[in-house]
Design goal:
The protein is of the alpha+beta class. The protein folds into 2 domains: 1-33, no CATH class; 42-131, no CATH class. 29% of the residues lie in helices and 14% in strands. It contains 6 helices and 4 strands. The chain has a two-stranded antiparallel sheet with strand order 1-2. A two-stranded antiparallel ribbon has the order 3-4. It starts with 11 loop residues before the first strand and ends with a helix.
């Protein structure tokens, strides 16, 4: 199936010099591409290394509790999650992550068909000196 069943647009890039219904495609190059990285194997790799595991549990072992906000672990939101989900908050190995997405148009022309949507996953468990690098 080469066309979208809803709108009828081709899933693949079509050569511009051919205007027929049976126009050939650019070696079946997709019109839109979504790349992704698997996070579960990456999290497993982080806990396989003893040094990384020590850094991931830093918020329990090495955090300074002086009432100031040095790290997200000192925030009221972190404590609220610990109160709402006590079994999650008791295990220091549970990862707390933030998902960030922001659309951008790399050419600065809003009428351009190309856009990029980077998505970042940030681990909040890491100590602040590792986040600066």
């Amino acid at each position: 199936m080469c066309n979208c069943p809803t709108c009828g647009v081709s899933h693949y890039k079509v050569k511009f010099d051919e205007c027929t219904d049976d126009a050939s495609t650019y070696n079946d190059l997709p019109t839109k591409v979504c790349w992704y990285l698997l996070v579960i194997p990456r999290f497993k790799q982080l806990f396989a290394n003893a040094h990384d595991t020590k850094n991931l549990t830093w918020h329990v072992d090495g955090r300074i509790n002086d009432g100031l906000l040095h790290h997200p672990a000192n925030s009221p939101q972190w404590k609220t999650i610990d109160q709402l989900y006590p079994e999650f908050g008791q295990d220091p190995r549970n990862l707390r992550v933030g998902l960030i997405s922001n659309g951008m148009n790399p050419f600065g022309n809003l009428s351009c068909n190309h856009s990029s949507w980077p998505v970042l996953l940030i681990i909040y468990n890491l100590p602040p000196w590792l986040c600066i690098k």
